[in-house]
Amino acid sequence: MHCLALISAVDPLLVDLTALALHGQDALVLIASLHAGGEEDFIRLTAAQVPMNGVDGKDGIDRGAQAPPTLHVARTSECWTCSLREVLVAIAEDRARLEPDGATVVLLPPGVELIHLAPRLAEDLDDVPGAALAGLAHVIDVDTAARDLLTHQELPDSVVAGEGQCAGEVHMVALGYADVVVALSRDPVGLDLVEHLRPHDTLMLPGLEAPLLPELLALRHDADAAVARVHPATTRAWGGPADHGVWTLDLSASLPFHPGRLRELVADLAGYGLCARGCFWLPSRPGRVCAWEVAGGAVSVGDAGTWDEAPEWDPDGMPGGRAPDGVIGVAGPRCHLVVTGLGDAQMRERVRQAFGRVLLREDEMAQAMSWIGADDGLGDWFGS
Q1: Beta pairing class for 285-295 and 298-306
Q2: pLDDT of 145-182, one tens digit each?
Q3: DSSP output for 343-379
Q4: Which residue among 214, 224, 252, 381 has its CA within the 20 to 30 Å range from the CA of 365?
Q5: In a domain, 240, yes or no
Q6: In the sheet where 275-282 sits, what is the strand order?
Q7: How far is CA 209 from the centre of its chain?
């Protein structure tokens, strides 16, 4: 089986460092980059590492070339990620035919998010004979992790970054979605923060000197499980070391949020310098999963579909094998926010109190039906 592994990073320097770390290992290592603004938009693939046991000529790579071999592929869709996925499928097809037992590692362009690329790619590779999607990794520098995750830091130039998107948002999702997290440097605060945000059923490697390639090739990416780790309705409080002031709150309730108090207290609930993910429900939108995410100093609220469409929440996967406190059952509407911060006990308590104040009171719940069909004043948040 030919294995295709993917590695993401926010900082272009980390992409280059990872490519250097993979030098000399038995895999074709490709660096992907996206180019726009010229006569033709295209994807460039540069061979940073050629497998040593390949046969010259049969894989189309000239090992005698002075410059690294490159391939330019015209953009085929308005969606850069879609175009990149098509290229990766074609690469997997060719490589599976030319080197059935080999491996290809693709270092993704900074800003390309695993969650937007990998689920559909995994489906497409199921139809490619002899090819499989191996492990997915995200590389992060823990020396800058606290700054990047807790404050607003602009993404490096990227043609795929959304308007206003920051580094913290990309890191937050990637840390939850990736099968392997590679933590560079040794800052203890940043390392603890990454541990709190990383699902503990994934692997963390301490730097690029660790055996990254063997770990990736030993895995087969489970896209459904990865999506469930970061879906607002199935996110979990993983927790982690508290020695350096990092903390995580696991806030849950079966009562809905009050729309008016949510708007009023959003700043207290989101806090400052926090990371958070989770779901909530509103009496005015009882069938909808309302998503909540805080990262990089930004708050994101949106519609994540119906409760019936949400991934199943496996109680056996929860710490202690149970649902969060206050949640009756796991299939229906609920409010569940996982909030991680650094130091500042007053901020932690303010978030906890805001969560309780935003919930409908029991006496208000008796009148909850009156909210259905009413204007909840949050149309600008949800686009309706």
Answers
A1: antiparallel
A2: 999 999 999 887 776 766 567 899 999 999 999 999 99
A3: S-HHHHHHHHHHHHHHBPPHHHHTTGGGGTTS--S-H
A4: 381
A5: no
A6: 246-253, 335-342, 275-282, 285-295, 298-306
A7: 24
Q: What is the CATH number of the domain that holds 85?
A: 3.40.50
Domain end (from 171, 195, 230)? 230
DSSP SS3 for 306: strand
Percentages helix, strand, coil for the chain, rounded to the nearest 5?
Answer: 35, 25, 40
Residue 380 contacts by C-beta under 8 Å, 6 or more apart in sequence? none
Angle between helices 114-125 and 80-98 (to 10 degrees): 40
Report yes or no: 299 and 153 within 8 Å, Cβ to Cβ.
no
* Cα(293)–Cα(172) distance, integer angstroms: 9
276 and 269 Cβ atoms separated by less than 8 Å: no
Q: What is the pLDDT of residue 69?
A: 87
Kindly state whether residues 154 and 259 are assigned to the same domain: no
Residue 383, Ramachandran bin (φ over 0: left; ψ between -120 and 50: alpha; else beta)? left
**Six-digit token string for 175:** 């840390």
Model's pTM, two decimal places? 0.90
- Mark which of 230, 260, 277 sits at the end of a domain: 230
